[in-house]
Design a protein that fits this description.
5 helices; alpha/beta; 5 strands
């Protein structure tokens, strides 16, 4: 499977989150072998947990599965640019690569409001790419918020 295929899985997780009233963000963590280690969608509202972002939940699930809090050689696919908290989690988990779909102009910490993954003082750096299925992700988010506002 390529970047688009894994992002399609993340988009499915985002759609599932939306059906539960969560902001539609999905994440998929993939091992270097191509094995999907974890799939998660946002769950802050249902879990009453401000840290229950799709990215963090995927890292938690994969860490449990691998029985290791370090996840070297992995790639995280996420439908929206991660926030500062999620970028920190990626660094601490030693994720090798991040692929995100749409930018998040208000809270994205990869390129939009901050460059959390590019800090030269860090002892681990996460390579990243953006834009895979960005239009689909952005459309899903717009539709969710339009529906919420009753438009």
């Amino acid at each position: 499977m390529d970047d688009h295929g894994y992002m399609a899985v993340a988009l499915e997780a985002a759609e599932t989150a939306a059906t539960k009233g969560e902001v539609p963000v999905g994440a998929v963590l993939v091992a270097g072998s191509g094995e999907i280690l974890a799939v998660a969608g946002n769950a802050q509202i249902s879990a009453c947990d401000p840290t229950a972002h799709a990215e963090v939940l995927a890292l938690r699930l994969a860490s449990e599965k691998m029985r290791n809090y370090r996840l070297p050689g992995t790639t995280l696919y996420v439908t929206l640019e991660p926030c500062t908290m999620c970028c920190g989690a990626l660094i601490h988990a030693r994720v090798e690569r991040l692929v995100f779909a749409a930018r998040e102009p208000k809270a994205g910490a990869v390129v939009s409001t901050f460059s959390a993954l590019s800090n030269p003082g860090l002892n681990h750096h996460v390579a990243w790419d953006e834009g895979v299925s960005a239009d689909v992700s952005a459309r899903l988010l717009r539709q969710f918020f339009n529906d919420r506002r009753g438009r």
